[in-house]
Write a structure and sequence with these properties.
The complex is a heterodimer of chains A (about 110) and B (about 110).
Chain A: E1 3-7, E2 10-14, E3 19-26, E4 30-38, E5 45-50, E6 56-59, E7 62-66, E8 70-75, E9 84-92, E10 100-101, E11 105-110
Parallel strand pairs in A: 2-11
Antiparallel strand pairs in A: 1-3, 3-8, 4-5, 4-9, 6-7, 7-8, 9-10, 9-11
Chain B: E1 5-7, E2 10-13, E3 19-24, E4 31-37, E5 44-50, E6 53-57, E7 65-68, E8 75-79, E9 88-95, E10 104-105, E11 109-113
Parallel strand pairs in B: 2-11
Antiparallel strand pairs in B: 1-3, 3-8, 4-5, 4-9, 5-6, 7-8, 9-10, 9-11
Classes of the chains: A mainly beta (about 110), B mainly beta (about 110).
Chain lengths: ~110, ~110
């Protein structure tokens, strides 16, 4: 069964304290792995798509990497405005449209 | 820049009533998706359209749920005879169907069933 697990469930950082979020996945052929940011009461906001092992993408203080079994979202020198829930999702190869999401990691960055 | 829009943003209803939600996708996107999200969980897939054709439905979509996309533009999701367990955020997303098929989400409709 296709599955996504994120860790940790919650993470508290001081402003400027870098860290990484983990997304482990099992899927019958990977079409794409997606990272989203979600603020309370809002819809997920797209961050990155990764397609194959070894791929990396960066945006401001965020960098996403992908291996055959997991993805990491690295946050460098976070700021309080980076506080949010970060969701990882996979889309399996084949004729499917659905994304399979993990439960998310809630990040709190304190000033 | 018009993203995905959803209406209403909040809906409070009594158990047993029917509710209908609307989603307007990004204008050039031919794929439209519905998800449900409960507190502390990631979104769960419900169904997906390519143009007006409903191509995939989750086992989560019981016979009380129906979705339509009559002209391949906006979509509606109807829940009949609502139950307290239907309380959740209902999210709509759209995509262009290109490589990677990145889905862009709307703000969601928060449903509360009393």
């Amino acid at each position: 069964e296709d599955q996504v697990t994120q860790s940790p469930e919650a993470l508290r950082l001081q402003e400027g304290e870098s860290s990484s979020l983990n997304c482990s996945y099992t899927v019958s052929g990977l079409r794409g792995l997606f990272w989203y940011r979600q603020d309370p009461g809002k819809g997920p906001e797209f961050l990155f798509t990764l397609y194959s092992a070894g791929e990396e993408k960066e945006k401001e203080r965020l960098k996403a990497t992908l291996t055959k079994k997991e993805s990491f979202l690295h946050i460098t020198a976070p700021k309080p405005e980076d506080s949010a829930t970060y969701l990882c999702a996979v889309q399996a190869a084949g004729n499917t449209g659905k994304l399979i999401f993990g439960q998310g990691t809630t990040l709190q960055v304190k000033p | 820049d018009t993203g995905v829009s959803q209406d209403p943003r909040h809906k409070i209803t009594k158990r047993g009533q029917n509710v209908t939600f609307r989603c307007d996708p990004i204008s050039e996107h031919n794929r439209l998706y519905w998800y449900r999200q409960t507190l502390g969980q990631g979104p769960e897939f419900l169904t997906y359209f390519q143009n007006e054709a409903q191509l995939e439905k989750s086992r989560l979509l019981s016979n009380r749920f129906s979705a339509e996309r009559p002209k391949g533009s906006f979509s509606t999701l109807e829940i009949q005879r609502t139950e307290q367990g239907d309380s959740a955020m209902y999210l709509c997303a759209s995509s262009s169907g290109s490589r990677g098929d990145t889905q862009y989400f709307g703000p969601g409709t928060r449903l509360t069933v009393l």
